[in-house]
Amino acid sequence: MKKVAEIDKLPWDVLDIISKILDFDDLFQFTGVCKNWRAFHKIYWKNFITFQEPLLVKKSSHVMKSFSFINIANQKVYHSKMINYFWHYAYSGSSSGYLIMTGNNNSFLLMNPFTRRKKVINTSTFKVNFSYFAYHVLLAFGKGSEEFVLLALCKRSNSLHVYQSRNFGWVTYSRLGYPWMIVDFVVLRNTIYVVTDNANIGVLNLNSANIKFLELKNTPSVASSSHLRLVVCDGQLLVVHTMSKVVFIVYKIDFSTMNYVKLKTLGDPALFYAPGGSCHALSNPNMWGYERNSLHVINHSATKCKVYLGDDAKLPKYIEDNTLRAPFIGRPYLLDWCFRHQHYEVDYSVVE
Questions:
Q1: What does the pLDDT look like over 207-217, one tens digit per residue?
Q2: CA distance linking residue 164 with residue 141, whole number of Å
Q3: Phi/psi of residue 4, each to 5°?
């Protein structure tokens, strides 16, 4: 009891030193020591999470069987023993702070390593593809509720499946790319926007299971080898257009004129991109230790992050380096961006 009392009296600057040497999972045990440590942890954890954007999710080789998170700004690695229990699940992506994986029992696993919450969604509507990055995913919660929506775009068949917790059911919006080939989606102002392979922008209706496309006055010319990604930044909808090896173009959707507007520079934001995967933006990158008007690129199966810088007159010049790619089978690592603070919310009353 005397030792516990001595620990309880440790000053917070000492607790700060202790916290900085603890690993990711150990910080969860920090609150169980005593009341003083619990009070310190409440403030420390909030600050810790706030300044850890973005994190890289790293899944190790088959030999190590481990998950970890990497902050590339300060070169810090955080290991997570808790997520290791789900190492045998196939990782698809992260959204709203959750890691989204598929199981070999025709299910999706939603795991939040920052709150230790998890959800399991089973389906009999379609066969779940049990392989790495089999789906492009988005998780959004109902505004002011615990209800949630999961979008899962199968990369093999290009079928878009949507799960809503309020009715415990799946709805297929497109199958095998018909009637549309959806390639990406994002949440802006509580509404889910989608983009097709020919650069059409639409609004996904959660109430009537359809997609209403915007009547835009112009759309960019895109080739079959192009990759289109939707990004939300500072309340604006951006479309990132990349082509093999050389082209990197960013457009803004001007809702006042219903036009695609080609940007000459990113300005303040920084983009974080994984070719063939997700794309995110930070509107105040200096706060997290990143350059403005910059592009950070990772490859899902490599271990490097490349940084491209632009200036006030031009976008970052991105050139894909195919030499960084590792074979899909037996690859030693798996990397992906994790933007924990981007918590998506949808409003069912927005789209009638």
A1: 888 999 999 99
A2: 10
A3: -65, -40
Q: How far apart are CA 104 and CA 126, in angstroms?
A: 13
Assigned token pair, 61: 């080789």
State the CATH architecture for 51-346: 6 Propeller (2.120)
Q: Find the radius of gyration of the CA atoms of the chain.
A: 21
pLDDT score recorded for residue 23: 65
Q: Which two tokens stand for residue 138?
A: 């988005």
Can you tell me the distance from the alpha carbon of 62 to that of 75, in angstroms, rounded to the nearest whole number?
A: 24
Indicate the residue type of 134.
A
Delimit the domains of the chain by residue range: 1-50, 51-346
Residue keyed to tokens 């173009």:
249
Taking 50 as the threshold, does the pLDDT of residue 328 lie above it? no
Identify the CA nearest to 331 among candidates 59, 1, 51.
59
| Closest alpha carbon to 155 in 206, 200, 102 | 102
- Report whether 190 contacts 350 (CB < 8 A): yes
What value, to the nearest 5°, has the Cα angle with vertex 202 and ends 199 and 208?
150
> What whole-number distance in Å separates Cα of residue 319 and Cα of residue 291?
18
Other beta carbons within 10 Å of 231: 22
pTM of the predicted model as reported, rounded to 2 decimal places: 0.87
Q: For residue 351, what pLDDT is reported?
A: 56
Q: What share of the chain is helix, strand, coil (3-state, %, to 5)?
A: 15, 40, 45
**Cα 85 from chain centroid?**
21
Burial class (CB in 10 A: 0-12, 13-18, 19+), 225: exposed
The model's pLDDT over 131-188, given as tens digits with 9 standing for 90+, comes to: 989 999 999 999 888 899 999 999 999 999 999 999 999 999 999 888 889 999 999 9
Give the 3-state secondary structure of residue 82.
helix
Class of residue 161 by CB neighbours under 10 A (exposed 0-12, middle 13-18, buried 19+): buried
Q: How far apart are CA 185 and CA 200, in angstroms?
A: 12
Contact present, 217 and 264 (Cβ < 8 Å)? no
In angstroms, the CA 144 to CA 261 distance is 34
